Amino acid sequence: xxxxxxxxxxxxxxxxxxxxxxxxxxxxxxxxxxxxxxxxxxxxxxxxxxxxxxxxxxxxxxxxxxxxxxxxxxxxxxxxxxxxxxxxxxxxxxxxxxxxxxxxxxxxxxxxxxxxxxxxxxxxxxxxxxxxxxxxxxxxxxxxxxxxxxxxxxxxxxxxxxxxxxxxxxxxxxxxxxxxxxxxxxxxxxxxxxxxxxxxxxxxxxxxxxxxxxxxxxxxxxxxxxxxxxxxxxxxxxxxxxxxxxxxxxxxxxxxxxxxxxxxxxxxxxxxxxxxxxxxxxxxxxxxxxxxxxxxxxxxxxxxxxxxxxxxxx
Length: 314
Hints:
The chain contains eight helices and 15 strands. With 314 residues, it is α/β, with parallel strands linked by helices. It has two domains: 9-143 and 294-313, Nucleotidyltransferase, domain 5, CATH 3.30.420; 172-292, Nucleotidyltransferase, domain 5 (2-Layer Sandwich). A hairpin with a 4-residue loop joins strand 1 and strand 2 (21-27).
């Protein structure tokens, strides 16, 4: 049987987030042939506006299968895609898509999200991260272990034998933003500090203080203000300490929830700014981790879903 020509376009993969959108033209083996970005995130669009943005984004590209993940499939998105209950086999998600036919005749496939409900009926949801996890499996199909996906709503995910068994969300990134811009800490913190280094002393102090239990999180937060008022701490140092406290609080909570009890393998899937900070937190709890860039994982995850559907059809 002849091998596919991996210089020719085979599908379009779109990661449509809350604040921006990235489209990739992929070959049959998942190679990116072209990439385009748009500033129109799902959070700023009405359902009726998605199609026009989509057509602009893919203009001139061939009429190929289109796979979309992220907030375009949310309740406030283009079309609400369902949530599938965990445990869920990731290779099956591609057969549970929602379809849209555009006025130009293109068929758009929206990937479903995941839902987890524990024994006490506490619920959790994800939309978009399931595709990043699929991107990990596209790289390492035998992966079993823990995936940490830092961001606005950080996710900790238990993956075993190609299935997402359970996951837990931490509001770490959103709380950081609220504290830095809308709380009393706004007077002490540089709200735009996005280049915090993992070896920054203020970051490390905040991280270790909370993970070790020496400083309770809610108390440590107010200490940022007192260090400013009494000792003249810089806004940059305060921002780094705030980041350390928030990530440390996430790890401390995850530890108390049992996430670190039996981990044998761990991947951090996220942006290039946050991933090193989470890797440093993993070091402090003696957890070995590897890293994977989140946008690359999303693109490969969409290829994974499309590839699995092709295999099922053969």
